[in-house]
């Protein structure tokens, strides 16, 4: 339809021009002494239009001829870039597919075809690492470094990641430190820093990194809990010899992290060893009131340091016993508390009750210590032997 409209329009224009030319009797007089030329106005117009068109075509031809070397150069540059892009794409695909030799070859082609592409150099470095070719790995990292700031972040991240994979944690820490100095701090970097901090035992740094990952939704609370638990426990283990520093660290732990029962189980013995267990008592009681945990109840006796603390813990534990009469962990804790306040009969009764429900090595040892205190050495030896037998069976299993 559009072509038909154009055709009708052209014919109408031609008819109009013909009719106009038929009624036009004008002429053009050109005088160039001593010559005179007189031509029809219609012919002059046709010659003028054709002449302008020819001049325009001639100028375009000259311009294109002059521009030809540049156009050829640009075409060659475009081909070279296309070749480099195809080679880089192929190298990345081969790298992810695990075809390291092909990835290295394609990345080398991309690097040479693009006058030193930093990304091609990094892909080649990863491929060389996959081939365990340390020499070429270092060479390609050097090529990437030659590009300056353009690829600095990607290069340092690559070095850090591969250093972690090779268990060169000090090197990884150094590269991540360089990144931090330049003001970079993102989720991928925090993940790498967390791995390095864990392996190097930098527990406070690990805590800070995990908290930031949780804040940025890169870790859920459930995913962050094991790392925080390990970091807190290990850091507090380092501080056991300094009770005041240990207490200060404990008091700085946020309440939402103290809701982790596993953390309380790990740190309660440490706090008890440093004489600071009374500060864990309130949190332990809160957790047991919220939801019963036999393993945590077993450690409850550690919360008492002084005689007043012991009596208070004993009163609380006996209140729990009304709801948990057959809980081995609670019975063990009651036996230990009674032993401290020298209620020998009740201590023996609770420990034996715990042993009947769940015969554990710790319960045998507690009874052995109790009988030694009471100078009942034969019974103490019987429980020592039972504990040793259980330990031997556990070691064989």
From TrEMBL:
Keyword hit for Transmembrane helix: yes
Spans through the membrane: 39-59
Location within or outside the cell: Cell inner membrane
Alphabetical UniProt keywords: Cell inner membrane, Cell membrane, Membrane, Porphyrin biosynthesis, Transmembrane, Transmembrane helix
GO biological process, one term: heme metabolic process
Main location: membrane
Entry keyword Cell membrane: yes
Protein topology in the membrane: Multi-pass membrane protein
Domain HemY N-terminal: residue ranges: 26-129
InterPro entries: Heme_biosyn_assoc_TPR_pro, HemY_N, TPR-like_helical_dom_sf
Biological or metabolic pathway of the protein: Porphyrin-containing compound metabolism; protoheme biosynthesis
A cellular component annotation (GO) from this entry: plasma membrane
Function summary: Involved in a late step of protoheme IX synthesis.
Official protein name in the record: HemY domain-containing protein
Species in which this protein is naturally found: Thauera phenylacetica B4P
């Amino acid at each position: 339809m559009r072509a038909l409209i154009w055709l009708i329009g052209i014919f109408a224009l031609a008819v109009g021009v013909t009719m106009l030319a038929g009624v036009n009797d004008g002429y053009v007089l050109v005088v160039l002494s001593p010559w005179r030329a007189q031509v029809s106005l219609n012919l002059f117009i046709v010659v003028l239009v054709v002449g302008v068109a020819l001049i325009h075509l001639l100028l375009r031809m000259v311009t294109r001829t002059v521009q030809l070397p540049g156009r050829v150069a640009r075409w060659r540059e475009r081909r070279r870039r296309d070749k480099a892009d195809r080679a880089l794409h192929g190298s990345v695909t081969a790298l992810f597919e695990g075809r390291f030799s092909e990835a290295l070859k394609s990345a080398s082609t991309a690097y040479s075809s693009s006058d030193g592409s930093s990304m091609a150099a990094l892909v080649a470095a990863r491929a060389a690492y996959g081939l365990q070719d340390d020499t070429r790995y270092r060479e390609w990292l050097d090529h990437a470094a030659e590009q300056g700031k353009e690829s600095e972040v990607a290069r340092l991240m690559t070095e850090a990641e591969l250093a972690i994979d090779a268990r060169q944690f000090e090197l990884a820490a150094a590269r991540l430190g360089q990144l931090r100095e330049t003001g970079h701090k993102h989720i991928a970097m925090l993940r790498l820093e967390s791995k390095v901090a864990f392996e190097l035992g930098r527990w406070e740094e690990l805590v800070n990194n995990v908290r930031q990952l949780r804040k940025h939704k890169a870790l859920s609370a459930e995913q962050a809990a094991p790392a925080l638990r390990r970091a807190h426990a290990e850091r507090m283990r380092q501080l056991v010899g300094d009770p005041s520093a240990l207490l200060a660290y404990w008091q700085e732990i946020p309440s939402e992290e103290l809701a982790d029962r596993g953390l309380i189980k790990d740190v309660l013995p440490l706090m008890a060893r440093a004489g600071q267990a009374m500060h864990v008592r309130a949190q332990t009681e809160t957790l047991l009131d919220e939801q019963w945990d036999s393993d945590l109840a077993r450690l409850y006796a550690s919360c008492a340091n002084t005689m007043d603390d012991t009596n208070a813990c004993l009163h609380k534990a006996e209140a729990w016993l009304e709801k948990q009469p057959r809980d081995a962990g609670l019975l063990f804790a009651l036996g230990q508390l009674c032993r401290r306040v020298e209620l020998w009969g009740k201590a023996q009764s609770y420990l034996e009750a715990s042993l009947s429900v769940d015969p554990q090595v710790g319960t045998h040892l507690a009874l052995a210590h109790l009988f030694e205190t009471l100078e009942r050495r034969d019974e103490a030896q019987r429980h020592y032997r039972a504990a040793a037998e259980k330990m031997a069976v556990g070691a064989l299993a």
